[in-house]
Write a structure and sequence with these properties.
Low-confidence stretches: 29-47, 174-182
Largest sheet: 4 strands, mixed
Shape: globular
Structural class: alpha+beta
Strand content: 35-45%
Strand order of the largest sheet: 5-6-1-12
Length: 195
């Protein structure tokens, strides 16, 4: 199977992340948590007053399985691309653009915090028991839409974030045999070993 690095096309006006979708199963396989007013929080606890979700938007070097027609492959984002994409998302004013399962536009959801993890142990995400690698793009989303909060967040019908956007392909590594749950470094080692 191929592994493709996705990068930003710096000259494209459509490039980058255009919206953040709340989904049941995000491609990066990382659930968000609902923030509470309390200092310590269990992942299942939801604060009915603040309506803020926090989680990873993109994780560096995390391989993401894709299938287009009959073709199966993996894509991933580097730390550099994630950093650029997070900045471009804000520069383009996309904080208020969100969807449900990439299918339905949502109103009244706003990215109110956006940051890149610099230290896995000292990052704000670690305070909420999220173990995120350095270079992860974290977001906090304020949900001012009661229908979304009550019907999707409280019921756990949505559990994570997934980005929507346009990226270019940088690298295409030759086919390899691996399960869906692979690490990009292991996959590259496998490709090089079989070359």
């Amino acid at each position: 199977m191929k592994i493709i690095e996705l990068i930003l096309d710096e000259e494209s006006i459509d490039g980058g992340v255009n919206a953040i979708s709340i989904v049941n199963a995000g491609a990066i396989e990382s659930d968000f948590i609902a923030l509470s007013k309390q200092t310590e929080i269990e992942l299942a606890e939801v604060d009915k007053d603040r309506h803020i979700l926090m989680g990873a938007a993109l994780i560096p070097n995390k391989t993401i399985y894709r299938k287009t027609g009959d073709e199966e492959y993996y894509v991933y984002f580097s730390k550099e691309t994630i950093s650029k994409a997070s900045q471009l998302f804000l520069k383009q004013g996309n904080q208020g653009k969100s969807t449900l399962e990439h299918a339905m536009k949502l109103n009244d959801l706003t990215v109110v915090e956006s940051w890149i993890v610099d230290d896995s142990e000292k990052d704000k995400s670690a305070h909420y028991d999220l173990s995120m690698p350095v270079g992860t793009w974290m977001v906090s989303v304020k949900v001012d839409n009661d229908e979304v909060w009550n019907d999707f967040v409280l019921t756990r019908k949505v559990k994570g974030f997934s980005i929507e956007g346009f990226f270019s392909e940088k690298a295409d590594l030759k086919a390899f045999n691996a399960s869906e749950e692979i690490d990009i470094i292991d996959a590259i080692k496998q490709v090089l070993k079989n070359a």
